[in-house]
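Job type: complex structure
Entries:
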Amino acid sequence: MKVSYPRKKYWNAPTLTLWERAYLPEILRGLGITSAVFLRNMGRWLTGRKGALTTYYPEETRFDYAPLNRGKHVLTQRPDGKPQCIACNMCATVCPAKVIEIEAGFDPTDLAHPKFPIRFEIDYSRCVFCGLCVEACPEDAIRMAKETPALTSADRHDMWLGLEELLSWNPQRDVAKPYPAAPAPAAIGRQP
Amino acid sequence: MTQDLVVSLVFIVYAMGMLITFGTVLTWVERKQAAVMSDRIGANRAYIRIPFTQIKLVWWGLFHGIADGLKMLLKENFKPRTYDQLAYAIAPWVVFTPVLLVFAVIPFGGVVDPGRIFPPLAGWFDGRTYPMQIARLDAGLLVVFAFSGLTIIGTMLAGWSSANKFSLLGGLRAGSQMISYELVIGLTVLGLILIFGSIDLGRVVERQSGVVLGFLPAWGVVYQPFGAILFMTAAIAENKRIPFDLPEAESELIAGYYTEYTSMKMGLFMFAEFIEIAIVGALFTTLFLGGYNLPYMSDAGFAFPGGATIALGHGTVVAIQLVTFLFKVLLVCSFQILVRWSLPRFRYDQVLSFAWKFLLPLALANLTVTAVLLWLVQGGVR
């Protein structure tokens, strides 16, 4: 006995109208759309405006990044301007691309934070922008900002960012995250 | 005698220079037009720095063509281990040379009288006039088809001698596709030949210089609008450009019949393709867009339907005709690029059934209707 198993239909078969099946009108419509875009953009170029959506990258950068964009790292600062980083190497350990290099220094005069980074460098040619360093940091010393660093270079060894670049974030002017006011100088030595 | 030789040499240099320039500039036009069509900027990085200064000439990426050519010249010349080295070596030339030769019979301007343009030479030229065309042959259109037929041999030779399955498939596809569309092109042009009564391209253009119905220019596209569309379609297909680029479909066949070609040998194939765009443009202009004719313009000047006339000198007329022809060719080339960047690729069986089941019957119908109408116009049953 022959049993027929009707095949299950997963989609609706596309139906074309007679006009669409005549092919030529729709082709002409498509050509009309593309040539209209061409004429519009060409008109913009000829009248001195920009007729493209793309940017000339190194000369021209976008300003409208999403606030959550992980573009580059910033190191947060204490009120006295020193990095909040205590050179614990947690970020360098967790980094899957192994791009963070930290060299710790010792400052006996700063009793609360005697360990500080002398050198804090990130290789942006290998960074995968995963944000794990931010997760790992116990001190909230590293965050990711939405801007992108200017890294255009013909040499991948030029794509390292050092302390001075990473400390460019000015917390006093960041409205989104109010920064605590600087404590009185006398209070520093008495912290537990 | 010497005068004829000099004039012919000038025409040949002009035509060759024009074709090579078109081939180079069209690579840039194609990039830029595609970019503008898709909201992009396009090639804009290659520049020429003036020596000893920091002035960099970018010129909207016009120098990318030079960069490409240099890259092609300096690349490794890879040779596949094929047993047919001779065929492998000559295939690019078999594709490239006929494409240049086709232009010999296409008129790029009206009749020129060198004595009137250069008065000091008037005595030497002794009132001779020359049609601006390298070879005024009675068999003009047949020469065009004969030479474009040679291109098929080149592509099939390349596909066969590369000893590569992708190349072989590409060569097979190129052969079947080009032969099919060659036929359609021939049939679409037949209607036009019936109307103009000649296959001498110079004469075909001269017949298009008048006016029909009092105001329409007597161009081929007015007589044969349907034939013009069919011809354009078949010509793009014969040039293997995108809606019909099955022979070199890169997603299936890498690069089709020139997979095994590198450096300038591959460059010749590409260059031939771009020159062929210009050739198709020139042919379409000659057959359907009135060649070098501007509407209402004759050798004496403009004569508008209202009765107004503008008299022009001989030199001005020749210059206008040359520029008109170039402008029309560029316009048709630009249209071909528009088609190439707008339409999706056909499937292989669709390409062939499109030729044999759609274009061919339509071309035959077009020919029949033209013939019957002509018969009626010329007297019908007597």
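Summary: Chain A has two domains: 17-53, 72-176. The two ends of chain A are 89 Å apart (CA to CA).
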